[in-house]
Amino acid sequence: MAAFKVEICGVNTAKLPLLSAQEKTELLKMIKDGDKQARDKYIKGNLRLVLSVVQRFSGSNENMDDLFQIGCIGLIKAIDHFDAEQFSVRFSTYGVPMIAGEIRRFLRDSSAVRVS
User: Does pTM surpass 0.70?
Assistant: First the structure.
């Protein structure tokens, strides 16, 4: 149904790929070995995670497209720094705080009130 279509930053979220747990594990190993295509596929497979975090900030006065883009930066940083063996948690457990932190940093730095 078209009612459930969400388009943000020109991305139709209904058409975003879903990755199985096995695919995520395999892609993370490939990313660790430096595979750029696996990294791109992992980013696209986790855009729904960014969208879920961005929805928490819907009450702010910022444009949702901007927040989604900032959240994608947080997602990329999380993927680049995640080590499944070191953290022994699922990626989403590590990624959500990284994405939310990047959005909070953006909101804090772009606010009119500066606290020294």
Answer: yes
